[in-house]
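Q: I'm writing up a methods section and want to include an example of the input and output format. Could you take the sequence below and give the corresponding predicted structure tokens, formatted cleanly so I can copy it straight into the document?
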Amino acid sequence: EVQLVESGGGLVQPGGSLRLSCTASGFPFSSFSMYWVRQAPGKGLEWVSRTNSIGSTTYYVDSVKGRFTASRDNAKNTLYLQMNSLKTEDTAVYYCATGSSSRIDNRGQGTQVTVSS
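A: Here is the clean output for your methods example:
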């Protein structure tokens, strides 16, 4: 059974930082590209980043480029998202996921990120 467990969310002021983690199990993590997606209040899912299986390449949505950095540790079956210079519009539930840029096959329960003064 595929399991994805996100952690690290919280309340942070604009300009602050958070680091999200996603621990995976039940599938060969090191063979899969991994995604971070988010859902803001009242909006649909938005793809945030895609990291290839070995962590050498990551693509980002334009709105987070230069502020967010995704990485992975395949020895620990863990995906990370370092979020810096957070903005109020980054407020959302963040999920890690498997699938593709147009389809989510599996995702975790999510972790809430709230950016507010």
